[in-house]
Write a structure and sequence with these properties.
This protein is mostly beta strands. Helix content is 11%, strand content 56%. It is built from 4 helices and 17 strands. The protein has helices at 5-12, 161-168, 246-250, 257-264; strands spanning 27-38, 41-53, 58-67, 74-83, 88-97, 100-109, 112-124, 128-129, 134-135, 138-150, 156-157, 175-182, 187-201, 204-213, 216-223, 228-233, 238-243. A hairpin with a 2-residue loop joins strand 1 and strand 2 (41-53). Residues 16-26 and 127-137 have low confidence and may be disordered.
Length: 268
């Protein structure tokens, strides 16, 4: 099943972190590798890290998504910053799908999100054929737009949803309704997360959380310490599972070490 990077981002927005207690110094709060399954087939991986900078008093989320051909050949990376109250500060987002690259650089100024979006597309030219050779040429086209959106009080980056829920408190019946910026298009959407019940998984108690964001419904399983175990989006056929090692998450899908080191520094 081939799916879009936007749909994957919606589901993956919930698995940015798990927090046992907030750090009091600059540190990595959480990081992990996730296997991405589509129609029960391993199509990609997702790696995330959440940091806290005590000097600037900022939370920083970093993530990278990679899928194979069956998953749409998607490469995405993101870095988002928020203050201690989880008020959005700025973010950068990059998506590469086929011959199209999309970048968004956004910052919040006086409760207004100003996002500069640039789309570069590789346009293939008609192929020239001869009896012995086949040649082709290509050129790229770019479009650049600026999006300005006034943010209501309490609006946050969608990648920070898990932290907001943890701060609200994990208990059955909590219904978290919110407005969040979707980093992939720099627009604000309504969302809802309901802690429906507790399910047993071996000796563990897991909170079953029902999520609805950008008209995509998905389920998350989180343990009592706040550790995200899995997500499932039935209508998309998408499942993500936390893995113990990088290899278990990536399988045979290439890992661009240079890109990952640029994003994360030291690899998770």
């Amino acid at each position: 099943m081939v799916t879009s990077g936007v749909n994957m981002r919606i589901v993956l927005s919930f698995i940015c972190l798990w927090i046992f207690s907030l750090p009091t110094y600059a540190d990595i709060v959480a990081e992990g590798w996730y296997k991405v399954l589509s129609a029960n087939v391993h199509v990609g991986y997702y790696v995330s890290r959440f940091e806290y900078d005590s000097k600037k008093r900022e939370f920083i989320s970093k993530s990278f998504l990679k899928t194979n051909a069956a998953g749409g050949d998607i490469t995405e990376s993101m870095e988002a910053f928020a203050d201690e109250g989880m008020n959005p500060i700025k973010y950068s987002y990059t998506s590469i799908v086929g011959g199209q690259t999309t970048t968004i650089d956004a910052a919040v100024k006086k409760n207004v999100l100003v996002a500069v979006k640039e789309v570069s597309k590789l346009d293939e030219q008609p192929t020239t054929k001869t009896t012995k050779t086949v040649s082709s040429s290509s050129s790229s086209s770019k479009t650049k737009t600026t999006i300005e959106t006034k943010l209501e009080k309490g609006t946050f980056f969608s990648s920070h949803l898990a932290l907001l829920m943890l701060k609200k408190g994990l208990k059955v019946g909590v219904n978290f309704e919110y407005k969040a910026v979707a980093e992939e298009d720099a627009k604000v959407y309504d969302g809802r997360s309901l802690i429906k019940e507790i399910k047993k998984a071996g000796e563990k108690d897991l909170f079953r959380i029902l999520n609805d964001y950008k008209s995509v419904k998905y389920v998350s399983l989180m343990d009592t310490t706040g550790q995200l175990v899995a997500t499932k989006a039935p209508t998309l056929g998408l499942i993500t599972n936390l893995q113990a090692t990088q290899k278990e998450a990536t399988g045979n899908i290439p890992v661009p070490l240079k890109s990952l080191k640029k994003i994360f520094g030291k690899l998770p």
